[in-house]
Amino acid sequence: MGKFAQSKAGAIRPLDRAFFNRDPRRVARELLGKVLVRKDERPTHAPLTARFVEVEAYLGENDPAAHSAAGRTLRNAVLFGPPGYAYVYFIYGVHYCLNVSCEPDGTAGGVLFRALEPLTGTEEMAKARGVEIHGPKDLVSLTNGPGKLCEAFGITRARDNGCDLTSPASGLWIGEDDYHARGIRTTSRIGITKAADMPLRYLLYGNPFVSRKVRPK
DNA sequence: ATATCGATTATCT
DNA sequence: GATAATCGATATG
């Protein structure tokens, strides 16, 4: 654990598949406060953990902004499969983004992971990101964006697309501890042009690790 | 503080 | 051949 880690995670229990076998809006809201875990095969290797503070729901074939809007392709096949699996895509020729599939097999729908609050393994995350951490405020830049969090966790399509996020055996999974998420807000989604006004972005209001600030109204 | 812009490639039309 | 669920750098108020 890095010397600037802010909060601790208690014992982390994996979420079950039923958690993801629901409407992506419900999954998105309830993912806030849960924990993303990366633990690779090396026994001496400390796990990377970080708490969800910002996600977006994508509604499958009825959502013009979703990658699944035009039907199943090789790229988006995971979204059409069973719930609880990682959909990783490559964007702008530069970045990876990570989603979890939702709803039953045959129904597309997913949640994009937009920002996390790092808990443990921050030194390795900084190394993966190519940044230096001099103080607590620098931790923000590790995981406050969908491309950044993938870089911090070493997530690529070749390595992680299709992996089971309900199983610690997969090395990348989602769990819960006793943390209770407070101050959930919704806004429109970021960076899209179609269906840009739907309020499907979920975040912890005031949390410094979200990708963009939200002004009070 | 906000705005604009270039990078770089898998994927689909 | 065009596009893209981003990021970091640079410019400007």
Description:
The chain has 217 residues and is α+β, with helices and mostly antiparallel strands. It has a single domain, classed as Methylpurine-DNA glycosylase (MPG) (3-methyladenine DNA Glycosylase, Chain A, Roll). The protein contains seven helices and nine strands. The protein has helices at 17-20, 24-31, 77-80, 122-129, 140-143, 146-153, 157-160; strands spanning 13-14, 35-38, 48-58, 86-91, 95-101, 110-120, 172-176, 184-187, 201-204. Strands 1, 2, 3, 4, 5, 6, 7, 8 and 9 form a nine-stranded antiparallel β-sheet that branches. The longest helix has 8 residues, at 24-31. The protein starts with 12 loop residues before the first strand and ends in a 13-residue tail after the last strand. The model has no long low-confidence stretch (mean pLDDT 94). It binds a DNA duplex (13 and 13 nucleotides) through strand 4, strand 5 and helix 6.
Offer a concise description of the structure.
The protein has helices at residues 17-20, 24-31, 77-80, 122-129, 140-143, 146-153, 157-160, and strands at residues 13-14, 35-38, 48-58, 86-91, 95-101, 110-120, 172-176, 184-187, 201-204. With 217 residues, the chain is α+β, with helices and mostly antiparallel strands. Helix 4 packs across helix 6.
